[in-house]
Amino acid sequence: MREVVLNDPLDFEGWRDAARRLRLAGVEPAHVRFRAGGGQGGLFDRGDALPDVEGGFTAPQGFMACAAQLIQHRSEDRFDLMYRLLWRLKDQPDLMAVLSDVDVAEAADRVKGVRRAAHKMKAFVRFRQAEDAAGQHWVAWFEPPHRVLRATAPFFVRRFSAMRWSILTPDGSARWDGEALTHGPPAEQTQAPREDEMEDFWRTYYASTFNPARLRPKAMRSEMPVQYWKNLPEAELIPELMAAAAVRTEAMVNRTATDPNARFQRARAPAIDRTPTDELAPDTLEELGRGVQGCRRCPLWRDATQGVCGEGPRTAALMIVGEQPGDQEDLSGRPFVGPAGRLLDKALGETGLDRSALYLTNAVKHFKHEPRGKRRLHRTPDAGEVKACRWWLDHERRLVQPRLILALGATAGLALLGRKPAVQTERGRIMTMPDGARILLTVHPAYLLRLPDAEARAREQARFREDLRAADAAL
Ligand code: URA
Predict the structure, then answer these.
(1) Atom nearest to 340 CA in ligand 1
(2) Is the pLDDT reported for residue 119 higher than 70?
(3) Which residue among 281, 361, 404, 471 has the highest number of C-beta atoms inside a 10 angstrom radius?
(4) What is the model's pLDDT at position 135?
(5) Rounded distance, CA 416 to CA 125, Å?
């Protein structure tokens, strides 16, 4: 029996080189045993000499990928299993696809265990705050059932790239200093900090997400295996929460029903005016305003506080069309009252146009946004939403009959022209719509607010005022 001693338990290169030589020299798996040495390469820890052979061969990719995971398994004989498979692949190149084969099934089972261990590591590593010479440093102690640290560490680099951290395990340690990932020797639990205020955070979080009515102890043990509990701060709550589950469930069942939240109620509200037809065409702007509140032509009403209709005299000569209400417009129910509206007001004042004589409205009547923390971030309405809302804009135009429409930005342009205009090249000149209405396009004031440097802002604001003057002159 020949004994091959590898440098360390994850010495894939060493195994590969030895396996290549042994297979080329015709050494059968039954005549060789692999083992991992202590990593010192000491005189008495070298094993038998390997055959001196020339050349090589290519192992199937599927096998190499499987072997790279198999080596992380904690079983002593994993190298032997890897070599047995490599040897058998010589006569049976598609062996890895034969799932009923004893060696292939064994390898698949161990790879599954390794993958599961890596998955649990990603879920259950808990960093605790520590301090070193360079400042704040996060340290986690973890005991994976297989040697998954090396292969899983890049996941933590991606996830916590801005923190300096170390993960200590009985097999080795990984350290990220904000720039480079390094691997070090095995560690002991005493080297990791024990308690910090993050523990309370995890405990509170876990207790608040624990639903006693959904308690399924078996599934819970499989998802959060008991072997990991000892290093999870929140795990100490589990026995207590499980014991109290029955009582809490009964209390939940007996509690009287509460009202669903407002958004849910709105989503269940009966649809009104799903497809308004021309018989429902509003006769007045007030009627139009009420209709917009019940509009279900697109889903934007669900997340908005209210629909925001146009505002201004029914006889206005100039109609200004923006994109959609913003955060402040959505809350107040009036168009152009937020930052973009203030900039528009200022520019109107500077060009001698009186806001109270104009009709101001939007291409889309509900605020499209997405939540980001406590803020609601504007999202541009898509072509379908613009098209759905055009019914209201057309009726506003029919009721007001402006002599000129000033379209602010691409969305207003799309709603009125039926195509997305190139704002910068088409701005400032009178265009005629298929129904004979006259339209002048310019940029949206929000664009002016977003310009980063003062010089560009001043230049663009002057151009915006020129476009407003052109509109005034065309009236
Ligand atoms: N932007 C718009 O397009 N319309 C508003 O009403 C406010 C901001």
Answers:
(1) 8
(2) yes
(3) 361
(4) 82
(5) 55
Comparing CA positions, the residue from 303, 309, 312, 305 lying closest to residue 291 is 309
How is residue 311 written in tokens?
Answer: 């505002």
Q: What is the pLDDT of residue 271?
A: 47
Place of tokens 């602010």: 408
Beta strands 369-372 and 359-362 are unpaired
| pLDDT of 389 higher than 90 | yes
pTM here is 0.48
Distance (angstroms) between ligand 1 centre and the Cα of 415 equals 14
Across 306-329, average pLDDT: 97
pLDDT tens digits along 148-169: 999 999 999 998 888 899 999 9
- In single-letter form, the type of residue at position 469 comes to R
Let me know: does 446 contact 411? Beta carbons within 8 Å: no
Spatial distance between the Cα atoms of 424 and 183, rounded to a whole number of angstroms: 55
Residue type, 221: R
Contact 368, 378 (CB under 8 A): yes
Q: Is residue 272 very low, low, confident or very high in pLDDT (cuts 50, 70, 90)?
A: very low
Q: How far does residue 336's CA lie from ligand 1's centre (Å)?
A: 5
Task: Tell me how far apart the alpha carbons of residues 150 and 159 are, in angstroms, rounded to a whole number.
Answer: 15
pLDDT at 260: 62
Single out the residue of 211, 199, 266 nearest to residue 235, CA to CA.
199
146-183 as b/e, with b when 16 or more CB fall inside 10 Å?
Answer: bbbbebbbeebeeeeeeebbbbbbebbbbbbeeeeeee
Packing angle between helix 285-293 and helix 383-400, nearest 10 degrees? 160
Atom of ligand 1 nearest to the CA of 412: 3
* Ligand 1, pocket residues at CB < 6 Å: 322-326, 329, 335-336, 338, 340-341, 362, 446
Per-residue pLDDT averaged across 37-60, rounded? 76
Sign of the CA dihedral running 351, 355, 359, 365: positive
- Enter the tokens of residue 278: 């021309």
Q: How far apart are CA 304 and CA 317, in angstroms?
A: 30
What is the Å distance from ligand 1's center to 357 Cα? 18
| Torsion, Cα of 439, 440, 444, 445 (10° steps) | -120
Probe target for ligand 1 pocket from 300, 309, 329, with the most ligand atoms within 8 Å of CB: 329
Per-residue pLDDT tens over the stretch 168-199? 999 999 999 989 999 999 999 888 877 665 56
Q: What is the mean pLDDT of the chain?
A: 88
**Separation of alpha carbons 76 and 106, rounded Å:** 14
**Can you tell me the distance from the alpha carbon of 196 to that of 203, in angstroms, rounded to the nearest whole number?**
12
Q: Mutation test of ligand 1: which of 305, 320, 323 has the most ligand atoms closer than 8 Å to its C-beta? A: 323
Kind and range of the H or E run holding 36: strand 32-36
